[in-house]
Design a protein that fits this description.
The chain is α/β, with parallel strands linked by helices. The protein is 31% helix and 13% strand. The chain has helices spanning 19-27, 39-48, 55-60, 66-76, 100-118, 137-146, 162-170, 194-197, 215-222, 268-272, 287-295, 305-308, 317-328, 386-391, 405-412, 436-444, 451-458, and strands spanning 7-9, 32-35, 125-130, 151-155, 175-178, 189-192, 207-212, 231-235, 278-281, 300-303, 335-337, 347-349, 351-352, 368-371, 377-380, 428-429. 48% of the residues are buried.
């Protein structure tokens, strides 16, 4: 069953897979994907920047609950934009049991970006979510669903609960996912009830596409119809962002990067033998990559880095210019850093400011919940102040070399916080480690490229090809 195009745009970072990029990809015949990570922060900070073009306000004008939409605009929108050195107004941090305002904000933000991505075309739009950000998932999924999303893409964990979550929400029932809590003496779940947050709203069930790093995980998810997705995206270790650690004996090379081997390659016969549609990601964004994937039995490829470097992505323009200059000079490199992410998973770094950064945690998307001795829930992050992390029961060894990805990735999309003392958050740029596709595109488009140029190239079209309307 082939229900999506052969090319799927990757769901990258915080707002790198912007609604503008997803919209452009869908217009050009690929499947566009928006990033659901920190969508609430992206919306409220864009509103505080003045919402140039009025796009987020235009989307919110279609939100099912106009009283909520008007409240959010009144609370966060700043006419003409905030002063450059003024801090952004804070918004609720994600928790296991979010307050109503936090749910309203997340549902509305994910609705709005999907609505914008779908505007003006009949193409397909997906949303990418991270399984490890569990307490933000139900609200994000429901917001995307009422925005009309065609697919939920999820990896960075085992997304076995998402098919049932989608089914329940589509039937108008409350849906939930389990949340891992350190030291837990009971089970914990995060819940969203459509009749509470958006009474009267309804949505069709989107397809569920599980992002997997092994054929074993695909086999596990395929064994039971209650957890079975509609498709798989196999992601190789060289793909951007987080990646699974190496399987088997763990070792590092002389630069401190994890070494991957034969055990990290899937058994293609087993993966394709699930009889579900498969797309392959990680260094496959080229005509040869598409041909190879299809020769293995896949529908096509998911492509990240070339789209991240395209003009429609959410990468801040000055950072894109810097990455492009390095690409031209053959000095652009991407490190698979074992310490950067507070999650403990390897994370691809193309640019990170190594200057001393104040340790703090005020966005909280990657916090780990833990159960205190009194039974109440606390939250800790290896990137927060060390004494606070240790006081919460964290291991001091986990804090070594950690960066605040939440704040760093917000800065990468031009929405970094400015502190009251004048400190400005530095960016953390993540790309895939295979840059050959970008090098080939640079030969065709020396001044940079758009999303349609990537799609045309992969599909074997000439550089100046324009699809018929």
């Amino acid at each position: 069953m082939r229900f999506f195009p052969s090319i799927i745009q990757g769901g990258m970072g915080v707002n790198i897979s912007s609604w503008q990029l997803a919209n452009a990809c869908a217009h050009a015949g690929a499947m566009g994907v928006v990033s659901g990570t920190a969508a609430d922060a992206v919306m409220v900070r864009t509103l505080q920047q003045g919402d140039k073009g009025g796009h987020w306000r235009r989307a919110l004008a279609h939100y099912p609950l106009q009283d909520i939409a008007e409240f959010l605009i009144k609370r966060y929108f700043v006419e003409g934009g905030k002063e450059k050195d003024a801090p952004y107004r804070p918004h609720p941090m994600p928790t296991i049991a979010p307050r109503r305002h936090a749910d309203d904000l997340s549902v509305a933000a994910n609705f709005a970006q999907v609505w914008l991505a779908k505007e003006g075309h009949n193409g397909r739009i997906g949303i990418n979510l991270l399984e490890k950000i569990q307490f933000a998932t139900p609200a994000a999924v429901w917001g995307a669903m009422i925005g009309g999303v065609d697919a939920i893409l999820m990896g960075a964990g085992i997304p076995r609960e998402i098919p049932e979550l989608i089914r329940r929400l589509a039937s108008g029932k409350a849906g939930s996912v389990s949340v891992h809590v350190d030291n837990a003496t009971q089970d914990y779940r995060t819940v969203i009830d459509p009749e509470v947050v958006t009474p009267g709203a309804s949505a069709q069930p989107p397809k569920m596409m599980a992002i997997v790093s092994s054929d074993k995980l695909a086999t596990f998810l395929n064994r039971d119809e209650t957890i079975r997705p509609d498709a798989f995206i196999y992601e190789a270790p060289n793909a951007g962002g987080h990646s699974a650690p190496p399987r088997g004996k763990f070792s590092l090379d002389e630069t401190g990067e994890p070494i991957y081997g034969k055990k990290d390659l899937p058994n293609w016969d087993v993966l394709m033998g699930t009889e579900l549609p498969v797309w392959i990601a990680g260094g496959m964004g080229s005509p040869e990559g598409l041909a190879t994937a299809q020769s293995l039995g896949a529908v096509g490829v998911q492509v990240g880095t070339p789209f991240a470097m395209s003009k429609e992505s959410g990468l801040a323009p000055h950072l894109r210019d810097e990455m492009m200059d390095k690409l031209r000079a053959s000095t652009l490199s991407v490190r698979n850093d074992m310490l950067a992410s507070p999650t403990g998973f390897p994370f691809k770094i193309a640019k990170r400011d190594d200057a001393e950064r104040p340790r703090l945690c005020d966005l909280g998307y990657l916090r780990t919940p833990y159960e205190r001795e009194n039974g109440r829930i606390g939250y800790r992050c290896a990137s927060e102040p060390i004494d606070e992390y240790v006081a919460k029961g964290g291991d001091i060894a986990d804090t070594e070399g950690r960066a605040c990805l939440c704040n760093g990735l917000m800065a990468t999309t031009g929405l970094g916080q400015t502190r009251k003392d004048g400190y400005v958050e530095p960016p953390v740029v993540t790309l895939g480690q295979d840059l050959s596709s970008c090098e080939a595109l640079l030969d065709r488009h020396p001044d940079g490229w758009e999303a349609v140029d990537v799609i045309n190239w992969i599909n074997g079209k000439p550089a100046a090809y324009v699809a018929a309307a």
